[in-house]
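note to self — DONT lose this again. spent like an hour looking for the file last time. sequence + predicted structure for the chain T wanted, 191 res
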Amino acid sequence: SSDLKYVKPANNVRLLDVGCGYPGYHLLAAKKLGYDISGIEVSEEVIDRLHKDGLKQVFLEPLHKLNYDSESFDVVGYFTTLEHVKSPKEELKEANRILKLGGLAYMSYLPSLDSEIGEIQGAEYYDIKIDHRFYFSPQTIRKLLNDTGFGVVSLTTLIHEDSLQRDYKNNRISEKDFNRDRKSTRLNSSH
């Protein structure tokens, strides 16, 4: 997975992927790098498929109901997940509790109505049309992380051309919007 491509291989490092999905790309990438992996997923069907594919440490329960010991994980990942949980604040408090001192909470693709693509598309912004409970601006995610005991190491807002292509392919954006946003991304990527 591209999100893990800069992570160095590590043995005996425990990673929890919250909302791992199918086919469990992040879990598979982390396993390949030598991580001790676990996952949480909300779909029984997805869990059954992951178990059949050999990813046995994936559970249906929400994080707070799994009763992990304090400081039991080195990494907790929310790869396109935090915007779907019932209470991001409670979720991140629990993630902080189960992370080892110096551990890493990693989040990717947090939808923002303040994003460049959100501003371009306005009411037609495709992220409004899917099951996101929350939207985060850089300010709100920074406050949320600080309020739940995390220090922010890096916070970046990006539009990647590959994500535009994926969203176009999955009919989340029209060809017209894809071409317009791709042009805008190219224009803005230089500064």
